[in-house]
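User: Predict the full complex structure for these chains.
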Amino acid sequence: MNKPIITLSNVYKSFEDKHVLQGLDLTIYAGETFVILGPSGCGKSVSLKIITGLLKPDAGNIFVKDKCINSMNERELNNIRMDFGMLFQNAALFDSLTVGENVSFGLKEHGNYSKNEIAEIVEEKLSMVGLPGISAKMPSELSGGMRKRVGLARAIALKPKIIFYDEPTTGLDPIMSTEIDMLVLKLQQELKVTSVVITHDMKSAFRIADRVGLHYEGKLWEVSTPQEFQQSENPFVQKFIRGEPQELDDLSKETNKGAKK
Amino acid sequence: MNQALINIFRLPGSWILGFIMHLGRVTLLSMQSIYWMFRGKIFRNHFWQTLNLVGVQSLPLISFTALFSGMVLVVQVGNQFMDLGAESYIGGVVGLSLTRELSPLMVSIILAARIGSSMAAELGTMKVTEQVDALEVMATNPVQYLVVPRVLACCFFTPVLVIYSNVVGICGGWAVAIGQIGVNHSLFVESLIQMVSNYDFFSGLLKSIAFGFIVAIIGCYKGLSTAGGAKGVGTSTTQSVVIIITSILVFNYFFSLAFFTYLRLIGRM
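Assistant: Here is the predicted structure of the two-chain assembly.
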C-alpha cells in the first residue's frame, strides 16, 4: 500500500448544538480512490471542507502530505491547495465567466502560461471530459451533466495530485451518472491522482472505489474494500446498503455499544 | 419570576451581541480589504466592471436626481429670500447645500440602492452556489478577488459622481433662479463664488470617499455572509440597503460635526 496522503485524527466539528463530526479518524493513501458514503446531512461535505481548509475543526488534526494544515496560515494553506482539484456538488462554475475562462481560471492565476498555451490546455482538458469546442459558451447554457464535466475540467486544469468530488452523480440521470463514474476512473488511470469521493449513490461508489467508508453520526464506520463492505455483517451497514430507512439511529447506537463492550 | 426577567433581557441582549458581532466582522473585512489593496494584485476586470456599474450606469439617475434637487431647493428658498431682500444669497445657499450635504448624501443613497444591493445579491449568489468556496480551493483569496476591486471602484468614483452632481444641481438651481424667480445672473454666480469655499467642496468629496467605502464594504459583507439559498440572497440584499443607508446617515452626522465644528475650531486656534 502507498503512503498516507491525507490523515484526519480525532476531528470534531459542531455548528451551534449540532455535532457534525465526533472524533472522525480517516487515512487516505496516495493513488487510491476513497469513497465516503453516508446519508444526506450526516456531515460528509463538512469532512471534505475540513480537509480542503474551507472549515476549521473544533478539535483534532488534519495532515495533508504529512503537514498539519489546521495550524497553517493562508499562504501555506494555498501552497497545499495548489495540489487540490475539486468538483463541487453543483459544479460551482463562475457564472459570469465563459466555460473557457472557468477552466483557465487557475492557469491564469497561478500558472505562467502564454495565451496560446492556456487555450491549448483548456481545449485539452475539455476534450478529456468529452466536451471539446465549448469554451465560448456560458455556464447557463449547459445541462447539469455538462456543468459537472466542465467543473471536472476546471478541477484538473492545474494537474492536481488530489481530486475531491462532492456528490458527483447527484441530480443526474443514470446514464449520465455512469458517464461521470467512467470519467472519474479514466482520470484516475490517466493522471494517477488520489481521489476522495463523497456520495450516497451506492452503485457509483462500488463502481469507482478502491476503499469505502460509511459516514454516520460524525464518524467513519466499516472502512473496507467495496466487496468487503457489501459482505459486512454490521447490521447498520446492511440496512444502509439496502436503503432501509427505519431504525438506522437505533442500530448505530447498538453497534456503538457493542464496539465499546 | 427569574425566568421571566431573563426573557425580558434576552431579546435586547441578543440584538446587542448580534450588532457587536457584525460590527467586528465588517471591521475585519475592511482591514483585510485595505491589506490586500496594498499587498496583492488588483483584479482589473472586476474593477472596470464595477466602475462601469458605479459610474456610467448611475449617471442618468444621478443627473435626474441632482437636477431636480437643485431646482426644488431654489423653489423652496427663492421666493422667501426675494421677499426678505436676500436674493444675493440664493446662489450661495444652493451651492453650500449641494456641496456640503445634498450631493454626497444623494449620490451615496443612490449607490446604496443600485450598487450595494447588486453587490450583496451577486456575492450572495456566489456564496450559496459554492463559487466562493471554489475560489478558495483554487488558492484565490475571495477578499482580494471579489471585495478589493469593488471597494476601490466605489471609493474612486463616488467623489467623481459627487462633483458631477454638484455641477448638475447648481445648474438646475440657476435655471429656476433666473427663469422662474427672477434672480439676476451675476448676483447668483457672485454669491456662489463668495459663499462656497474650497473647504466646503473638499469636505463633501472626502465624505463621499468614506460613503463609497461603506457602500462597497457592507454590500460585499452582506453578500459573503449570505446563507440559506434564494431566500438568504433576498434577505441579504434588503438588509444591505437598509444598513448602508443607516450607516451613511449616522456617519454623515459625525463627519459634519468634525468638518464644520471641531476642525474649524482647530483652524481658528
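The first strand of chain A starts at residue 4 and ends at 15.
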